[in-house]
Specification:
- The protein is 88% helix and 0% strand.
- It is mainly alpha-helical and 80 residues long.
- α1 runs antiparallel to α2 and α2 runs antiparallel to α3.
- The two termini are 17 Å apart.
Amino acid sequence: HKRALILRLKRIEGQLRGVQRLVEGEASCESIAQQLSASRRALDKAYHTMVGCLIELQLTDKGVAQADMKPVLDMLARYG
């Protein structure tokens, strides 16, 4: 989980640097807004991944089987 999260955060960092270049280059407001929206969605997905990890850790500590957690974690990943 840690490696995947680090890679996701590096991609987000690259997206944000791209937004900075758009602003510095005086790109259109619409272009900047689109990139900000994409960056925000990427951060939200990273956050939901962390929430899923926390849920998984808590349920594992309580003896819940991985197979029983899978539907909940999949739903969080899909709709979160």
